[in-house]
Amino acid sequence: MADELLINITPMECRVALIENGTVNELFVERAAKRGLVGNIYNGKIVRVLPGMQAAFVDIGQSRTAFLHLNDMVWSRTQSAPNIFELLHPGQVLSVQVMKDMLGSKGARLTTDLSIPSRYLVLMPYGNHTGVSQRIEQEEERLRLRNLIEQLQQQLKLPGSLIVRTAAEGISEQEICQDMAYLAKLWEYIQRKQKEVEATGLIFEELPLPQRVIRDLASEDTSKIYVDSREIFHKLQEFVAEFVPSIQDRLIHYPGERPLFDLYNVEEDIQKALQTRVDLKSGGYLMIDQTEAMTTIDVNTGSYVGGRSLEDTVFKTNLEATQVITRQLRLRNLGGIIIIDFIDMQEAEHRDEVMKILEKMLERDHAKTKITQVSELGLVEMTRKRTRESLEHLLCESCPTCQGRGYVKTAETVCYEIFREIMRYARAYESQRAYTIVAHPSVIDSLLTTEAAAVADLEHFIDRIIKFQVENLYTQEQYDIILS
């Protein structure tokens, strides 16, 4: 079954779902009030240089200063690595490009090695080599594209290096020439803006999400591209006619009354992608825990006992889990360090097969992934490049009650904290005649029922009256003790 792209437009946000084999595998969200910065080029001003970190903080006109590391800067690689203060100083203005959006409390990550993408190519004005996407596997086609690029680059006198994207496989010389001519004009425009923007300011803004996904994701495998906004549909028609004419007949306006995302069960998949537990069809399940440091994925057999033996059950569960894990990585846009705890397999042949399937499924991931190793404990350690916020961070915020812990203290625990607090007050303030406990209804209920005997003993021990007051606006962990 071919791939489909669903583009859902509202005045507040744009959402794009990538459907592969009838299943939602990737989701992109761009809100009007908070557009992503990745790909944008700015003139930035150096605010602070940190020699110890070989990095600098750069003001690009956003709410937080951005971060630029020496490794992400252009300098002669024939020499030994310079110190950052040899290249930068406070107040200096330079052109930078956003590599990673602001994530949590961290500012955007920058580079001075600019890259300007088109449909089939990526221009790196300060580079010095020609590259071909590793996903183009036929050596004959790789050689054809490399020779063609080098020839056209000399004709157009385009500086730097060019990277051939996967979409260029089998594309004619004329189409690639048009793509390169577009990049040449765009680079001239950027150079002109670099001189016009004197201090901090935007030089080049990346395309809006609908145009961007068509440029980056639409391919020969894409059978249909549905757009539920007539205005955006007409804009995309113009964009496709100029840059991707081969898919013009696949761009379709969806005018139906039933929401486009409901038609493909995307809304349901989004809600499931925000849950910790993911059920497998066999009866097993995954537990996905995302933290700031890393993401852990635990595989469990659950109620599945369909194998001929325990080893067979474990093997089949792990095989099914590899497909679901790779889908969840893409759908949730999980990045950074990822630890996968497959169920222990005794047979080496089974372990090798699971790893082989995992690597094969990751080949379809548009983000760069790398399996580093299988640890001594049998954990699969991998990384996935993160350029934008995960789905959870984009759509959710930390719970104000548990502060992101994922759990709250029991009413019983809070009762005992209150008892200890009252005893401290009784020792410190002997003149007080009574205490009023203000707390959540569940805590007050526990104090009046299961802990009633303990309250009576405490009143007798401190020789004070204890009163109670319910506060519905308090969380279960909140309480006050009023002295009177």
From TrEMBL:
Domain S1 motif, chain residue ranges per copy: 39-113
Entry-linked Pfam families: RNase_E_G
PROSITE patterns: S1
GO molecular function terms listed in the Swiss-Prot or TrEMBL record: hydrolase activity; metal ion binding; RNA binding; RNA nuclease activity
Biological-process GO terms, alphabetical: rRNA processing
Signal peptide: none
Sorted UniProt keywords: Hydrolase, Magnesium, Metal-binding, RNA-binding
Cofactor needs: Mg(2+)
GO cellular component, one term: cytoplasm
NCBIfam families: PRK11712.1 (NF008689), RNaseEG (TIGR00757)
Designated name of the protein: RNAse G
Protein's organism: Acinetobacter puyangensis
Organism classification: Bacteria, Pseudomonadati, Pseudomonadota, Gammaproteobacteria, Moraxellales
